[in-house]
């Protein structure tokens, strides 16, 4: 197993050393999930892969308002979190985040090597396993709306560079999000990343408690390049067996640029469709199976596997 530089290892060890050093004055929590999957793509040989994601956190105050958080995951790049069994060049485990979080009644603030998201991850958003070197501020404006500002650096997307020193301010995101009752919500944001400017919009309609329709669009301001997504997600059942599903159609312009490659499971530009179904393995706690099919123009992919989670 290949590790990141000593600064990365130090960041992770700091969480454990701090917990042991101060004893009962701090509260430590952790979460681990592991995934094993079979990956069959039409444009290359099939692969058997695994993923490990570890989330340690230390609460620094009695009311849990202040916390120090990290994230350790397999994979070698911003949008990749899987290693391939039997590959001599894919055997990586890196710490990708280390950040301080302060939560208060009107929102939260994060500083350090922070996540790419403030909550739920959108299909048009950056990969949930990525990172940004900088800070995030989220403030509630009214009962059902909030504004988010993120400033920082998103440059080298190799996982072993996540703990490199800060070089330049090249990432800015300003987002407004709101709920309209219990069933409708939307987001509007302006973004500066990968040397380009973007406008992103998202609308979600939970037309019944178990099913949600979503529409997302990202437009590059300097050209006609764009990304569009429309889909459905929710829960259903087969007899008495509950199932979760996620499906969408997408289109990514060929000239959309590197921002497309920083999203989750990017296959290529053009017209695409994806469908996933998953369910719990009832005999094993916190374990689920999944099957997913993706098609983007001439490239198709089938994923199937299991995921297990542990939390303390």
Which descriptors apply to this entry?
mainly beta, 16-stranded antiparallel barrel, 1 helix, disordered N terminus
Number of helices: 1
Element-by-element helix/strand order: HEEEEEEEEEEEEEEEEE
Count of distinct strands: 17
Task: State the strand order across the main sheet.
Answer: 1-2-3-5-6-7-8-9-10-11-12-13-14-15-16-17
The largest β sheet comes out as: 16 strands, antiparallel, barrel
Which residues sit in consecutive blocks of at least 5 with pLDDT less than 50? 3-8
Helix content: under 10%
| Percentage of residues in DSSP E strands | over 45%
Average pLDDT, to the nearest integer?
90
User: N-to-C terminal Cα separation, in Å?
Assistant: 25 Å
Radius of gyration in whole Å, from Cα?
20 Å
Q: What form results from the Cα inertia axes?
A: globular
Structural class designation = mainly beta
């Amino acid at each position: 197993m290949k590790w990141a530089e000593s600064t990365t290892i130090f960041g992770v060890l700091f969480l454990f050393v701090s917990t042991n050093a101060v004893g009962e004055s701090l509260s430590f929590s952790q979460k681990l999930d592991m995934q094993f999957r079979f990956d069959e793509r039409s444009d290359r040989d099939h692969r058997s892969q695994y993923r490990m994601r570890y989330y340690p956190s230390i609460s620094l105050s009695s009311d849990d308002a202040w916390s120090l958080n990290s994230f350790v995951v397999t994979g070698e790049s911003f949008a990749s979190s899987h290693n391939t069994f039997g590959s001599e060049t894919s055997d990586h485990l890196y710490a990708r985040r280390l950040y301080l979080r302060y939560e208060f009644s009107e929102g939260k603030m994060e500083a350090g090597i922070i996540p790419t998201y403030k909550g739920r991850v959108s299909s048009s958003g950056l990969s949930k396993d990525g990172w940004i070197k900088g800070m995030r501020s989220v403030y509630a404006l009214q009962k059902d709306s909030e504004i988010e500002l993120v400033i920082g650096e998103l440059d080298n997307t190799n996982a072993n560079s996540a703990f490199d020193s800060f070089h330049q301010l090249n990432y800015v995101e300003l987002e407004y999000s709101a709920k309209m009752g219990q069933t409708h919500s939307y987001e509007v944001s302006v973004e500066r990343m990968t040397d380009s400017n973007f406008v992103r919009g998202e609308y979600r309609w939970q037309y019944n408690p178990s099913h949600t329709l979503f529409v997302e669009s990202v437009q590059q301001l300097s050209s006609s390049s764009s990304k569009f997504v429309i889909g459905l997600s929710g829960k259903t059942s087969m007899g008495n067996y509950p199932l979760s599903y996620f499906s969408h159609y997408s289109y990514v312009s060929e000239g959309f640029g590197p921002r497309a490659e920083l999203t989750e499971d990017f296959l290529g530009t053009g017209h695409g469709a994806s469908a996933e179904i998953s369910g719990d393995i009832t005999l094993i706690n916190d374990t689920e199976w999944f099957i997913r099919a993706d098609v983007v123009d001439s490239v198709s992919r089938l994923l199937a596997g299991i995921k297990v989670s542990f939390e303390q």
